[in-house]
Automatic annotation (TrEMBL):
The keyword ATP-binding does not apply. This is D-glycerate dehydrogenase. It comes from the Bacteria. Residues 7-309 form the D-isomer specific 2-hydroxyacid dehydrogenase catalytic domain. InterPro entries: D-isomer_2-hydroxyacid_DH, D-isomer_2_OHA_DH_cat_dom, D-isomer_DH_CS, D-isomer_DH_NAD-bd, NAD(P)-bd_dom_sf. CDD domains: GDH (cd05301). Residues 102-278 form the D-isomer specific 2-hydroxyacid dehydrogenase NAD-binding domain. One of its GO terms (molecular function) is NAD binding. Keywords: NAD, Oxidoreductase.
Amino acid sequence: MTADVEARAKAEFGATVRMETAPLSNAEMIEAMKAYDVVMPSLKDQFSAEVFAAVGADLRCKLLANFGVGYNHIDVAAAKAAGVAVTNTPGAVTDATADIAMTLILMTARRAGEGERIVRAGKWEGWHPVQFLGAHVSGKHVGILGMGRIGQAIARRCHYGFGMDVSYLARSEKDLDFPAERMRDAKELAQIVDFLIVAVPASPETQHLVDAEILDAMKDTAFLVNIARGEVVDEHALIAALEAGKIAGAGLDVYEFEPKVPEALKQRENVTLLPHLGTAAEEVRSQMGHMALDNIAAFVAGRDLPNLIV
Ligand code: NAP
């Protein structure tokens, strides 16, 4: 946690802070749920049905106040069955994650990573008219897969900032303050856009939503950007599509088997690879922490939890 959040957690709730950054082991999760009233997990802590089952009757924990908006690492049905509430931190993450999507769009289309590597390697021989020609971003057509909070923040940036046309896929029609066309399915969306941005949560329904068929449907000049969760994109199919030149490039903040990043991706110049930076800004991580602590404060006071999932 940021210093600010850690100080409040200790002062307000007498919190114990775990200093290691590695994910919690099953044994640690089981122990934590036996020893504490509230646990604040984050995205790599896999609170599976097996973990809840192993805690059994020794359960003390009544709330998992997740630090983050995505909660696919928590088996919410098992939590509910065990009588453990789950909350998250929506909203706090939205703008920062949309900014990282724009970073990936620009870096990948304009070959910024590749150019930066050339400069650092001392291999830049000076400007010339046809050097490092990338794809123009302004005025292009963006497709948003998942028009929720983050999807809309990306679309707004693309429309107002870059004069782009916006199309999208969501389960429901959206009332938006900018023009955007809703498509019937992921394939229809993939076929028409220059940038396909993945912004859906990971779930059984969205697992490999972007598979070989969707990548095949994309224009060979189009780019894929994923700021949501690695599981939504079939990484094997993505590598095959890049190698076959079926798409022009990819910008990734998340990976299917994070933190493992396949060599085949690392070796490609037309792929931008970021280490899950979506919300990595001091103010944003503090806001997320405070949001999680606000849920805990409500729980302690017996009030309704502001960001209750189950
Ligand atoms: P959100 O507001 O819940 O939006 C999710 C959107 O996805 C909604 O428009 C939803 O449609 C749509 N959707 C869900 N399932 C779908 C399906 N099966 N088919 C088509 N559309 C579907 O969530 P958010 O706050 O924007 O966050 C999205 C995700 O981003 C999070 O779950 C998290 O995993 C990820 N994230 C990543 C980072 C990072 O560091 N890279 C940071 C923050 C969040 P409806 O509106 O019709 O329900």
